[in-house]
Amino acid sequence: MLVTGGVRSGKSRHAESLLEGQPVVTYVAPGPTVDEDPDPDWAARLAAHRLRRPPHWRTLESRDLAAALSPDGAVIVDCLGTWLTALLDRTEAWDQPSEQVRSRVTTALDVAVETLAARPGDAGPVVLVTNEVGLGVVPEHRSGRLFRDLLGEVNQRMAAASDEVHLVVAGRVLRL
């Protein structure tokens, strides 16, 4: 399942609620850690997310999306936007030609989609959280346009691989 929405729309809380009652849940955090990004606002956001999780949920901080989708039990990935940012940061892709960057992202995404498709049905549900960034103005800077375009492609591919997509707006859920 893919859960999408804007910043602070309630998408993470909704995604977490979909896994209530699951005996085994792996929470995949593919974005920057507090050690990597000492921004106090980011640290506060991570802390708030941690406090909401049940104590039996296992947290996995990993940018290897395909490997993160492999464990048995339910999996929640929060979120694909931070995964994409980490991928672009790690490969220093922000200033590289768009087609070169797109190729690199597509390769990583292909592996993740294949892993998701091959996941046994009895392994547990997978909930992917992502940001909806294409509804606003065209970003002024190239990096913003690159991110918006690439995340749009990531979201389309993951939506196609998902059995259901939920759009969260102002805490309200629309099943697409």
TrEMBL record:
Gene source species: Nocardioides nanhaiensis
Reactions accelerated catalytically: adenosylcob(III)inamide phosphate + GTP + H(+) = adenosylcob(III)inamide-GDP + diphosphate; adenosylcob(III)inamide + GTP = adenosylcob(III)inamide phosphate + GDP + H(+); adenosylcob(III)inamide + ATP = adenosylcob(III)inamide phosphate + ADP + H(+)
Keywords: ATP-binding, Cobalamin biosynthesis, GTP-binding, Kinase, Nucleotide-binding, Nucleotidyltransferase, Transferase
Protein name (Swiss-Prot/TrEMBL): Adenosylcobinamide kinase
One example GO MF annotation: kinase activity
Pfam family, one: CobU
Enzyme's top EC category: transferase
SUPFAM superfamilies: P-loop containing nucleoside triphosphate hydrolases
Protein function: Catalyzes ATP-dependent phosphorylation of adenosylcobinamide and addition of GMP to adenosylcobinamide phosphate.
Assigned protein family: Belongs to the CobU/CobP family.
Pathways involved: Cofactor biosynthesis; adenosylcobalamin biosynthesis; adenosylcobalamin from cob(II)yrinate a,c-diamide: step 5/7; Cofactor biosynthesis; adenosylcobalamin biosynthesis; adenosylcobalamin from cob(II)yrinate a,c-diamide: step 6/7
Enzyme Commission numbers on file: 2.7.1.156, 2.7.7.62
Superkingdom of the organism of origin: Bacteria
Keyword Lyase: no
Keyword Repressor recorded: no
